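Course assignment 3, question 2. Fill in each field.
Student: A.L.
Task: Predict the tertiary structure for the chain below.
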Amino acid sequence: MSYILLLLATLAWSFVGVLVKSASSMVDSAIISFARFFFGVIFLGLYLFIRDGKIRIRLGMKWVWIGAVGKAANYALENIALQIGYSYGNILVQPVQTVVLLFAAGLLFKEKIALRGWIAAAFCVAGVIVVGWNGTPLDELAQGSGLTTLLFALAGIGAAVHVLSQRMLLKTMDNGNMNLSVFLMSTVIVAVPIPIQSHGFTGPITAWAWGALMLLGVITGLSFFWFAEAIKRVPFAVVAIVGNCTVLFAILWSYLFFRDPITVYIIVGTFIFVVGILLLNFPMPRRSAKKTPL
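Answer field:
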């Protein structure tokens, strides 16, 4: 069952770009951000109530607010970038998140960053640069075609803040109710600017677009829970490999559903930062101590 949960979480995350792009044919990015959290809270709340008979929401904790702000920024910026860019663009969020978390471990938690960590960070940054560049002439990048890359990078920082909040909150809360509390606050945060920022329905109302919004809610509400439950029992090496298949699936779906152009720069850049993420996540084998003859 744990392997199934891991696979479900991986596949769910890989479809985010395609689903956001589909939903954007009907509503703008502000509504998409709200729907991802709103439906996520509903689905996660129902699941926890069915499982436990009750739900526990805690909004008075500092890290709930910090996590909510980070996740709200993550979704808002990611949705804007996906709406104006390609549906595979959010593959940049994970390597940026990885680098930010690495630096946070050293600066906030005073953890020593080994040489392997710095090399992994370099691979991640290099991969993001290659994907963001994508062979575009430098003058075009300077004139604004690199905007989506910047937005995804900022979204990655927001995602890293959310992960940091999870690390702190898991000391006192269970995974399900922690996410429910954070996502509820995120719903409120992204709802505030809607009356001013949003244009509401911007295209034809279709069942597919509504379905995309609902599925995005399912992914928000349950995928993080699935992943957290899976890593309790699945070997870490398997988690590292399967989890990073998200970016490969995301590229595949973007080509199959929208025929987004997949250039050699996208493939090479993705390979570079996946190597960096795997390098950081894989445990190094310990050298066995040499036995001295008696």
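Instructor remarks: Residues 1-281 form one domain. The chain has one domain: 1-281.
Grade: pending
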